[in-house]
Amino acid sequence: MRYSTLFGKTTKEAPHDADSANARLLTQAGYINQLMAGAYTYLPLGLRVLKKIQQIVREEMDAIGGQEISVPMLTPKKVWEDTGRWGIDVLYRFEGAGGKELALAATAEDMVTPLVKTFAKSYKDFPILLYQMNDKFRNEARAKSGLLRGREFNMKDLYSFHLTQEGFEKFYEESKEAYLKVYKRCGLDAIVVKASGGDFTEKYSHEFQVKTEAGEDRVYVDKESGDALNKEVVPEEDWENTDKYDVHKTIEVGNIFPLESRFPDAIKFKMNDAEGNPQKIIMGSYGIGPSRMMGSIVEVHNDDNGIIWPKSVAPFHVHLITLGSKDDAVRERVESVASGLHDDLEAAGIEVLWDERDLRPGQKFADADLIGIPLRLVISEKSLAQNSIEWKERHEGDARLVGEGEIIAEVKTWVDAPMRLTSHE
Ligand code: ATP
Ligand code: MG
After folding, report:
1. Ligand 2 geometric centre to CA of 33 (Å)
2. Which is the most buried residue in 98, 102, 183, 408, by most CB within 10 A?
3. Are residues 287 and 210 in the same domain?
4. In this structure, are 315 and 249 located in the same domain?
5. Does an H or E element contain 303, and which?
6. Residue 424 lies inside a defined structural domain of this protein
7. Nearest ligand, measured from the Cα of 145
8. Domain total of the chain
9. Closest to 305 (Cα-Cα) out of 20, 1, 28
């Protein structure tokens, strides 16, 4: 893709209210645009990143048996009344035509549980594992930190329904492993943290937390046992106890909950077992925020010059830059080598953003650093004098030359190589 045709360019001006690295860098680099506090448009670059994160989440949910559905985000009052949640703080409630009371989905236990009740006919249908990936709406008191806390944000929510506690627990552990795979594949080093079970259960829920200064959560890691706890489940008298705990600022990128039978019971949903005895249905819910993940990745992977995307979620693999020349013949040669390379890389399944604009090298390099694509290739009079292309990875300081004949193979090898988890803080 040619940068000159890309909708959404870099800008030197930082948004006046940017309160975080992700809000500032994603806006300045042309990934997102704020419509209002807590609601962002994804520009073409930003949507590419979000979709890559979602695809990784989808693959890992499919791998543990999840089946993807899509529940309406526009919902009737009745489902929330049935579960006793019509009054919750974060729910956007409003009136539709004819005075019909509606809410925008803040989560979906309230819709998915009756859906499962409609379709589950026998104990043989269990376990049932359904997920969706769409926007959720929450009337957050304070939307802030770019993609970290939105009022409309993207969420993957999975719901599991089981007839035995053992079956539930087995799946719950599988989901933990799947979540950890998701974060690792996205370049995030997440830890599993015990948190409150909320209104649903006396047991803990489990959060997935990423350590970073930008985080608004506090995780207490017990120095002796290694147990990680959300501050909310640490006794208040221990909050200052740094002999017992290491305390970290973190961002919550996922949360899984044992819901016991709270929602099935609310709608009188039971299922007869093989002996014909009605059994309680045990449920879990499992949430990941792909949009918050996108913001978190930027918080963790950046430097003074811009974003440093892990290659698995970068909008493009390669940022190709051509440098101009006053000499027409040289310029034509640079253009023609670049155009051939662009097409050959795309044909090999490698995503290339080609900055072919007639700008000073310094400006193009600064834009490339800001946008943060992991591999930069430069074609110039200088490199072609050595039949080479300049290769520089975003997280490294030095460039090197790669022969024109070897470049496609080298890029392919680089794209396929396993990702290292590097922190760029
Ligand atoms: P928080 O405590 O940060 O408000 P939560 O515990 O209310 O989040 P959950 O209901 O557990 O959130 O939602 C599951 C996941 O959805 C979270 O782990 C997070 O990744 C994402 N998420 C929740 N609220 C938001 C939000 N306002 N903006 C962006 N992502 C969110
Ligand atoms: Mg949570």
Report:
1. 26
2. 183
3. yes
4. no
5. strand 302-303
6. no
7. 1
8. 2
9. 28
Taking the C-alpha atoms of residue 168 and residue 295, their distance in angstroms, rounded to an integer, is: 32
**Cβ within 8 Å of residue 37, ≥6 positions away:** 17, 143, 144, 151
Helix axes 44-63, 165-185, angle to 10 degrees: 140
My answer on whether 207 and 59 are in the same domain is yes
Residue 425: per-residue pLDDT: 40
Q: Residues 201-254: pLDDT tens digits?
A: 778 999 999 999 999 999 999 999 999 999 999 999 999 999 999 999 999 999
User: pTM for the full model?
Assistant: 0.97
Other residues' Cβ atoms within 10 Å of the Cβ of residue 339: 16
Residues with CB under 6 A from ligand 1: 107, 138, 140, 149-150, 153, 155, 252-255, 287-289, 291-292
Q: Which atom of ligand 1 is nearest to the CA of 205?
A: 11
Q: How close is the Cα of 289 to the center of ligand 1, in Å? A: 7
Instruction: Give me the domain span that covers residue 116.
Output: 9-300
**Residue 114 neighbours by CB distance under 10 Å:** 19
Distance 334 CA to ligand 2 centre (A): 52
